């Protein structure tokens, strides 16, 4: 059995969980202007700052730049930018999300802040888990919404139907109500509670034990994203999974070796080209 076939069969059997980063929406474009959807750190900073670069130390990572502008213009400025970007702009559909919709995995992790993953499940009842930060009145750093096929309803982790497909968007999304993890202060609060066990529902802590992960379009050269990923995938199999990366840095290579991720030297497009449709896996296996 080839490595690709093994991974595809694991995805179809829900033994391997897609973990989606900004590369998954690299081909999404504004339906009005044709500009690319800002999703990676650099493009988000430029979009947030009217297309102008910020100081080099702020360009290093989006949370750092967002913190700078939050301090100057308020938290509502950053939240407003993300809401306008992902709720008020019409984007073309990413090829990856069409492929994923056909695969229809039971559990998906998506660190992007757009709603294309949720659109893939718009005709399917599911659970939506999103990260929250710097809120009072709760010890938890997540919200759970249950989708009944037409609308979302907020539920407690005890009320949630854990047999439904689970969409985990730790950095938030604009639907059903905008909420985002964005600035350094957000990440500090969220990661602290993630490490303490208060940012993941109890039913998901149980479900994730022994799973493997396929990181797609997911750079691992920044501490914030690595810390989130490491804690979300806690309890994984000893061989945690795979990451698609055609040009990993030495830092990424060392990190992946340390935590049990195997690097596959290909990007999302090349990976999808191996099997244009998930159903092809069955014919290959036969």
TrEMBL record:
Superkingdom of the source species: Bacteria
Protein name in the entry: SIR2 family protein
């Amino acid at each position: 059995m080839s490595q690709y076939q093994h991974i595809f069969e694991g995805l179809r059997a829900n033994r391997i969980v897609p973990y989606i980063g900004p590369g998954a929406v690299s081909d999404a474009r504004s339906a009005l202007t044709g500009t690319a959807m800002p999703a990676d750190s650099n493009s988000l900073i430029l979009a947030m700052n009217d297309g102008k670069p910020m100081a080099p130390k702020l360009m290093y990572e989006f949370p750092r730049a967002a913190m700078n502008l939050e301090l100057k213009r308020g938290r509502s400025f950053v939240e407003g930018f993300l809401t306008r970007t992902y709720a008020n702009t019409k984007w073309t559909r990413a090829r990856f999300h069409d492929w994923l919709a056909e695969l229809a995995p039971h559990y998906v992790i998506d660190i992007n802040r757009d709603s294309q993953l949720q659109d893939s499940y718009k005709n399917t009842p599911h659970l939506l888990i999103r990260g929250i930060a710097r809120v009072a009145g709760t010890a938890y750093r997540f919200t759970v919404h249950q989708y009944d096929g037409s609308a979302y309803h907020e539920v407690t982790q005890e009320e949630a139907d854990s047999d439904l497909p689970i969409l985990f968007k730790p950095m938030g999304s604009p639907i059903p109500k905008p909420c985002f993890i964005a600035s350094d202060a957000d990440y500090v609060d969220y990661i602290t509670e993630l490490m303490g066990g208060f940012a993941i529902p109890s039913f998901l802590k149980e479900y994730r034990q022994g799973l493997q992960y396929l990181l797609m379009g997911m750079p691992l050269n920044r501490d914030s994203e690595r810390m989130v990923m490491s804690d979300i995938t806690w309890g994984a199999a000893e061989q945690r999974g795979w990451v698609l990366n055609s040009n990993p840095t030495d830092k990424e290579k060392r990190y992946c070796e340390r935590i049990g991720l195997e690097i596959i030297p290909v990007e999302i497009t090349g990976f999808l080209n191996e099997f244009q449709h998930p159903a092809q896996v069955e014919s290959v296996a036969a």
